[in-house]
Design goal:
Phosphoribosylaminoimidazole-succinocarboxamide synthase; D-amino Acid Aminotransferase, Chain A, domain 1; SAICAR_synt/ADE2_N; ATP-binding; alpha+beta; 2 domains; Phosphorylase Kinase, domain 1; EC 6.3.2.6; globular; phosphoribosylaminoimidazolesuccinocarboxamide synthase activity
Length: 237
């Protein structure tokens, strides 16, 4: 496979065209950002850890019947993925109150949310990814009714699979965001699943083992990511 021109560069990943029209190369960089790019640092090894972590999670989801764009690892920091027509919405599930829901609703951090909450957000950094609802999505043509239902069903299936996976490793899946795209007439999971896009706490101590360590200046970000990976059995060699 030949790596060609850069298609897109995000806060922590770059996407490249390839000589195969339906395949892309996803590169995980060491860049780390928070607050819509207001805080940025380079953290050694982070790209490698996230690439291998994402590959592990995507393969687990595929085994559980969740279709994803992941194809294979290409290098320590790169993966081959299907080329999707991405939908401009993020799907967020919250199992435990943390982050923006605490600020918005004034609820206590750490309370269990039963049932879990589901929220849609528009992917728009300039507007700080505003919360939207199904009416907005339909009205502005961001996805069809059927696609909305598919995204919701897949997102809750992901929750079922990953809550159990992390629980077995002594971890709490607090919340996470997912992105989807169209591929050959169906909706499949795209983007990534790493500690950059979810919250993970130690089940006993409730220590934060995700990007909140960077947001809140706790430190030990990559070390926490590696600790989670080791608990799950992800090979980082």
């Amino acid at each position: 496979m030949e790596k060609k021109s850069e298609l897109y560069a995000g806060k922590a990943k770059s996407v490249y065209n390839t000589d195969e029209a339906d395949k892309l190369i996803l590169q995980f960089r060491d860049d780390t950002s928070a607050f819509d790019g207001e805080k940025i640092e380079q953290l050694a090894r982070k790209g490698m850890v996230n690439n291998k972590f994402n590959a592990f999670i995507m393969q687990k989801l595929e085994e559980a019947g969740v279709p994803t764009h992941f194809e294979r690892l290409l290098s320590d920091t790169e993966s081959v993925v299907k080329k999707l027509e991405m939908l401009p919405v993020e799907c967020v599930v919250r199992n435990i109150a943390a982050g923006s829901i605490v600020r918005r609703l004034g609820v206590e951090e750490g309370i269990d949310l039963d049932p879990p909450t589901f929220e849609f957000f528009l992917k728009d950094d300039a507007r700080h990814d505003p919360m939207i609802n199904e009416y907005h999505i339909r009205t502005f043509g961001w996805a069809t009714e059927a696609e909305i239902e598919q995204m919701k069903a897949l997102t809750f299936r992901v929750n079922e699979v990953l809550k159990a996976l992390f629980c077995d490793a002594g971890l709490l899946l607090v919340d996470y965001k997912l992105e989807y795209g169209r591929f050959e007439g169906r909706i499949i999971l795209g983007d990534e699943f790493t500690p950059d896009g979810c919250r993970l706490w130690d089940a006993q101590t409730r220590d934060k083992l995700d990007k909140d360590r960077f947001r809140q200046g706790i430190g030990g970000v990559v070390e926490a990511y590696e600790a989670v990976a080791r608990r799950l059995g992800v090979s980082l060699d």
